[in-house]
Design goal:
With 756 residues, this protein is an alpha+beta fold. The chain folds into 4 domains: 156 residues, Nucleic acid-binding proteins (OB fold (Dihydrolipoamide Acetyltransferase, E2P), Beta Barrel); 130 residues, no CATH class; 73 residues, no CATH class; 223 residues, 3-Layer(aba) Sandwich (Rossmann fold). Helix content is 38%, strand content 19%. The protein has 26 helices and 29 strands. Helix 8 packs antiparallel against helix 9 and helix 18 crosses helix 21. The protein is flat, with a radius of gyration of 40 Å. The two termini are 45 Å apart. 25% of the residues are buried. This is Rhoptry ROP9. InterPro entries: HAD-like_sf, HAD_sf, Mcm10, NA-bd_OB-fold, Znf_Mcm10/DnaG. It comes from Babesia ovis. Pfam families: zf-primase (PF09329).
Amino acid sequence: MATKLGAKIYRDGIVANGVELVMRKWIKSREDMGSIFADNSTVFAHVAALIDSKDTEQCRNMLKLGANVDMAVICVVTAVNTYAGKGGNVTVWMCSDLKETTLKVNVYGTMSSELGGIGQGSIIAVLNPDLTDYTKDNYRGISVKNCDNVLLIGEIDGLQMCKGVTTKGTTCKNLVYKHHQGEFCKYHLKAAFDKPKAKKTSVIPKSEDIIKQVDGTIQRRELDENDKQNFIFRPTAPSDPTKVMSTLGGLGSLLNKVTETRIGTTNIMGVKLPVMTTAPPEKCRVNNDKNRNKEFDSAVNSLKNIITPDHKNNKKVLGLLQLIAKYVNYVDKECIQKSGILQICSSLFDHPLDGIAIESLKLRRVIKKYMQTPLKDNAAPTYLIGRKKEDVKQHIKNQATSKDLETILAASSDVDAYVEKENIETTKRKLEALERMNKAQEYQKTVTEIEVVATYCHECKRWSEYPNPPGVATGTILSTDRNPHGALDVNNLHLLPKRARFTILGKIISFQTRYCWIVTLAPRGLYVPMNNNVESFNAAMRDCIANRVFHGITPEEAADKFVTMLEENGIKYIASDFDATMISKHSGGYCDPKSDIAVLSSVTEHFKAVAERIKRTNIKLCIVTFSDDSHVKDHPVYISGGRMVKKALEHSKCTADIQKVYDFYPRFWESPSQYKKLGLKGPMPNYKEYHLRQICADFNVELGEIILLDDDIYNCKNAKKIGAAVLHRSRYGSLLAAVFAAMRLALDPKGNLEVI
């Protein structure tokens, strides 16, 4: 990466894009540019690295730039053009890195007087360039809508026209940088060093030679004609009619035999005629349909059997999902409804493996389309135009048999063995990298701040419950090479003995040195201690679980007990997920308000009961979801985010008073151009940390006063880590018959409830 990054002050100019630029005039002083180049918050990339990338984000990833680092490029202006566009004047700067790369810089709107003086030979720097696609003249471009992102450094010395002359006798119009290229362009240099081609000597034949050659050709042709034999063509004898009829009769009998083998025939008055009946083909088609239905049921049953909580059969699950997708168009709709494949697909949406979740979503949409649901994007319904009949080749290609299933299941063991081998190789590479890493880097990646909680000394043979032994300051680590009772500052972790080691155990870190001092450490950022609200709520919830308080009661009674428990333990806000929490189904992130009525009308009765009960309290309700409305904001049909929540309340006749809907998907807010719109200094955190912290900022509450209700275990673990109360329910295990069916509490396969 050293060849694609960096700019610096050098002699009478600067070095950018690997070329020394001699300055004729400084607009920005030499000292100011030196301080800019020395600032680590801005990195100057080469123009070639930016142009060779798909977009700016790919260039940043290729150069391994952090989210808090700005990227800039330096280039030389070779031509300036201004024209009037729809939104105002547009100024185009043709720029070059004085090597082989040329690009366009499009500036929209009015410019300052300083930028208005930019001309040929000006050196500019563009901060966080927005790279556009290729234009009609095959140039990449940079779009500049804020002139504050452009810095005029100065003017370059030595940019001039080539002194060569073209073949037409005119002067060459190519620009050259004489301090780097000389006074001639590369085309004239190439022409100067190319060896001249030898001229072909033309030989004019004499008239005597031409006459001799013509006479010789005529003589050869006469000899060839004399050597040819004369052929006599005679009329053929008339054919025998009897022989001809016998030959045709033999061919006719052969054709009849072929026809008999292909289709059924009948003998009428000694003449065999084909039987034109449709009963056998219909019977054959019915048998084929039954076989396909059986094969489809077999595949669905196999899928049900291999889905386990420990996700050990991921390869088989993925293969069966792809196999079932081939069966859908050849199976009766009644068979599909009875199989329960739609419920299986919905349960796989939150699978930890992205490939399985995507394949299940694809299969669900294929089934919905086949079941004659009107297509999205305003396409024509299938029940009006019917399904297109496939040709024979496509039918044979798409037709799946039980042999495919057997092949997938037989090959799964080989795939698992290969994956295990790859995992072992990856682990070996990571261990080798850790061995090469020095101790300072190792501790820097794992521990940021350490506090000694308790110590044990083998010499004294006792534990010390004090935060530190007598004479040892707070925030220090015990044990040095010289004195095991000495102290070592936390800033000098790399000075620890080489045999020292640490192990992460849940919320604690156990550290051991060669002097056998065992120190229990708590690094910053590993966990956040629970406040009194969360601890008291967890204790009350465990008591309810042990006493089976919520069993055998109505949703209204369960909601009353649940909300009362929240009031007693200081919970002020309920942050509920939307998919598979507020509603019993999963929308997939967006839906069609006309065709996906079943999804929008699936708000659970327990959620309605809780929403009605909190109206008599000071507890407020918010929705936190990954269904980002910015994804389909301008789509003519689909809705998501807050609009989808509002439609769900209407279709389900739910009167919940929702304070605010936080609809953000972290992957959509990773680039600087996106997360800066929200006022963030870096990419949006994963899980729902941003959603919960926004509730704290908007309503002036603490994280310990919020409870998150979610069906994703990773969202719940992250919320617990930052200090919020959480309730979660896994899809494995039975549901309680009360409000926790809506609250998504955790149930292990035996039906035992646990509070995370």
